[in-house]
Structure formats: structure tokens, C-alpha cells
Amino acid sequence: MSFLHEVDAINRRRRARTVDLVRELLGGRIAASGAAFKPNSDDIRDAPALDVARTMHGLGGHVRVLDPAALHNARRAYLEPRHGDSALDVAHDADVVVLLTEWAEFREIDLEALGQVVRHRRIVDGRHALDDDAWPSAG
Question: What is the top-level taxon of the source organism (predicted)?
């Protein structure tokens, strides 16, 4: 049981660290990529993604969320934050993009197109799923 408690504590710290990173980047307009507990699922029960999005919203961030499968459940369960129709729609004018669920559609997004719609080219990889070479080289 102590092992499970430690795993839970690590997960809570990871969520808090993601929020801290966004706050350090002064992200007032936040594009949250993901709501589901894991990719290829519509399960939002105890989803770190929604917890982080709600926390950022509660701290005054203007958060827009997109998830390919879990958006309907996220909308039913949480009236705020706002939701979007596409990854580029959610990222439009964002100060920071936050990867919260490692969907292939988010990891493989057209970096040039994304760079053209955001206000600032800042990303927080809350899942450690992005290519360490491709993203920095795209600015």
C-alpha cells in the first residue's frame, strides 16, 4: 500500500509542476491539448489533464481544451474551462500550449501551422511525449 501512496504523491506533484511551469511562462491564454486520462480513450475519471486545466482556470487562466474522444464527457462534467473544435482553434492566440494527454494528433501537429496561430511560441509538455529535437528546432 505504501508503494501506491507514493505513486499517487508523484502524480500529484507532476500535476502541480505542470501548472507551475505554465504560471512561470505567464500564460494568460492557455491551449490545453487533452482531457482524457490517456490517449485513445474518452475516460475522464481522475484525469490529470482536466485537473490541470481546472486548476489553471481557477488561477485566472483563459483555458481552452481539446480532446479527440473525451471532449463530450469533459463538457458534461465541467462547464468551464472552454472547449474548442480543433487543435489550431484551441491554440489560436494562446500564450502557451500545454500537452496534457499524449494523443498522436497533438504530438504530430504541423508545427509551422501551430506557430502561425499562437500568440507566443511556448509549450509545456506535461506528458513528456514530444520530440525533443523537432519542437525546439521549429521555434
Answer: Bacteria
Listing from the earlier edge strand, what are the strands of the sheet with 82-83?
82-83, 62-66, 29-33, 96-99, 123-125
The answer as to whether 45 is a domain residue is: yes
C-alpha cell at 130: 514530444
CATH number of 33's domain: 3.40.50.720
Alpha carbon distance 80, 100 (integer Å): 16
pLDDT for res 119: 95
pLDDT in tens, 46-76: 888 888 888 888 888 889 999 999 988 988 8
What digits encode the pLDDT tens for the residues 82-128? Answer: 777 899 999 999 999 999 999 999 999 999 999 999 999 998 888 88
pLDDT at 40: 94
